[in-house]
TrEMBL record:
Keywords: DNA-binding, Transcription, Transcription regulation. It comes from Nonomuraea longispora. The keyword Coiled coil does not apply. GO terms for molecular function: DNA binding. This is TetR/AcrR family transcriptional regulator. Residues 28-47 bind DNA. Residues 5-65 form the HTH tetR-type domain.
Length: 215
């Protein structure tokens, strides 16, 4: 990469490539500088240190995941939206297992704009069931735990038996939806709510609404 084209975004992109190819442990400023064809001090114009680069990488991955799930649930409602959300999450992790593993889990996704957006999408999907307050927080946590936990186990080789992991994931989704059925009396399909492009809900009157989801 020519020196003139180096930017903060370019540095993050190079970091993603290194992580995809070699894992998060291989990410160093010297590795990025070598990939860019510049001396390591040149990177300090764009990132202060390795910790900031890891933060930017994490934000990039959360943005990609939010984009993927938002596109998947757009215009869907109820069970269909939940299925689309969970399938999109798993698909992203299977495509980018190394960069997904590089996401910072502490202090959690709510600490970044992209993480807040991802939580808002999760909450919008679940709020269609009439969930509010603490019930919405608990359900959002369950949704994230199902998507994240299964995907991490899958890409790390945690499922060694012969049965197809895709079938297991569909069963997990069914179990999650049945749990929602037991907890909630009103179904999104009955209300007619659908997820909009902004990650909110649209009711029969066409009003979009969504609050930031924090879990």
């Amino acid at each position: 990469m020519p020196r003139a084209s180096l930017s903060a975004e370019a540095v993050v992109e190079l970091a993603c490539c290194i992580v995809d190819e070699q894992g998060a442990e291989a990410l160093t400023l010297s590795a990025v500088a070598g990939r860019a064809g510049v001396a390591t001090p040149s990177l300090y114009k764009h990132v202060r240190n390795l910790a900031e680069l890891r933060d930017r990488l994490s934000e990039r991955v959360l943005t990609e995941l939010a984009d993927r799930t938002a596109e998947a649930v757009l215009g869907r409602s109820g069970d269909e939206a939940v299925r689309a959300f969970l399938r999109a999450w798993r698909a992203y992790v299977l495509e980018h297992p190394q960069r997904y593993a590089a996401i910072r889990q502490d202090p959690g996704p709510q600490a970044t704009p992209a993480g807040q957006r991802l939580l808002s999408i999760s909450a919008a999907v679940l709020r269609a069931y009439g969930l509010e307050g603490s019930a919405l927080i608990h359900a959002t946590r369950c949704l994230r735990a199902a998507a994240h936990g299964f995907a991490v186990l899958e890409v790390s080789g945690g499922f060694a038996m012969d049965e197809q992991t895709g079938d297991s994931y569909e069963l997990l989704i069914d179990m999650l939806l049945k749990g929602l059925d037991r907890r909630v009396g009103t179904r999104a399909a009955q209300r007619g709510d659908v997820v909009t492009a902004s990650g909110g809900l649209r009711d029969d009157g066409g009003c979009a609404h969504c609050r930031n989801g924090r879990s």
